[in-house]
Amino acid sequence: MSGHDDHSHLSEMDVRVRALQSLLVAKGYVDPAAMDELVTLYEHEVGPQNGARVVARAWCDPDYAARLFEDGTAAIAELGFGGRQGEHMVAVANTPEVHNMVVCTLCSCYPWAVLGLPPVWYKSAPYRAKAVADPRGVLADFGVALPQDTRVDVWDSTAEIRYLVVPMRPEGTKGWSEDALAAIVTRDSMIGTGLPQP
Amino acid sequence: MNGPQDLGGAHGFGPVIAEPDEAIFHAPWERTAFALTLLMGATGLWSLDRSRFMRESLPHPVYLTASYYEIWLAALERLVAERGLAGEDAPAPKRVLARADVRPAMARGTPTERPGPPPRFAPGDRVRVIAMNPATHTRAPRYVRGRLGTVAALRGCHVLPDTSAHDAGENPAPLYNITFAAAELWGPDTTAGNIHVDLFEPYLAPA
Question: Which of residues 43-82 of A touch B (CB under 8 A)?
């Protein structure tokens, strides 16, 4: 923050991005209309509701679940999702024996196509440092405790493969519609830092 | 490189604190930084791997005290300077996305799978991550280097980030998912069962 100019409310970051934007637009590298479209897409359209549809379908349709765990990219594309930061998808299933958690220790790799843009905590040092060594400690930070005999596995997104956790379907949801099930699938349950919330 | 980005297993960063009902962007400039980063990536003047290298080669104190979009912006500024985009002889973009191109381009994404050599390892093989200490870009985190794991799955051949990040070609290499017992990485001081890491064949040796 500069704070030197009393007549300006622009932060240092505002000034820097505006300068860069002006240059790149003037030089013909960037179309401002494309910027607006991109922000609309990722701020309002692509989000964890996509992944929730995938999980709800897998809970309702065993054949779909089998395809999802065999070829995640193709099965997710069946529901119309894919593309940027979801080009190569792998779905991993939580079971009573194994709970899965996804991290990117080296940067912020995240399955945008099914979860949208990652939250700040996912990209931040505390999570990236802790998840691969102490995932139960991470779960405790989120207020989640798992049975001691559940193994906690961690998937570090070190290449261009993106991971989607398919949580266990909660008890008491027998007969629920796919829409009703999708509504209880939280973003964090698909990262592995939370559980579905019926 | 052993930069500030290689955080797996580090202590001292405190608890994970999630923001309730978090907004996608926290300030208008973050929208701009996000859009510029993606649209400049689409110009084809550098690879995603180069972008990652420009982020992780920021000074440690800068990287560790910046927000993620601050890191993105700083890296983009470095790329613009490195490629001379402000100068008289600025290179022409390979393409410029118009509004109507955005959705098709994002739906297509940028797949990294390529034809490449046959895999040397098969599921079930025991492998050791080689000792390495490159000052250049790599996707072998320090916490697995020198450690013993098991090939769990073949992921096909993908662009090798280690060369792609340095304009030295895509050099597609077999990519494997390797399973490490957490105790192999951390001894008894871990609450994890297995750690699954995607690693390229040049990082691996038979064990």
Answer: 43, 46, 82
Question: Which chain B residue has its CA at the smallest distance from A113's CA?
Answer: B107
Number of domains in chain A: 2
Q: In what order do the strands lie in the sheet with B173-181?
A: A98-103, A151-156, B194-200, B173-181, B148-158, B126-129, B204-206
Structure letter (DSSP) for residue B22: -
Q: What is the pTM of this model?
A: 0.97
In this prediction the ipTM stands at 0.98
* pLDDT beyond 60 at A2: no
Please indicate if any CB of chain B lies within 8 Å of the CB of A12: no
Instruction: List CB contacts (< 8 A) between B43 and chain A.
Output: 29
Over the stretch A11-59, which tens digit does the pLDDT of each residue have? 999 999 999 999 999 999 999 999 999 999 999 999 999 999 999 999 9
**Claim to verify: residue B181 and residue B135 sit in the same structural domain:** yes
**A8 touches B: beta carbon within 8 Å:** no
Neighbours of B58 (CB within 10 A): 19
Domain check: are A113 and A174 in the same one?
yes
State whether A132 and B9 contact (CB < 8 Å).
yes
* pLDDT for position A3: 43
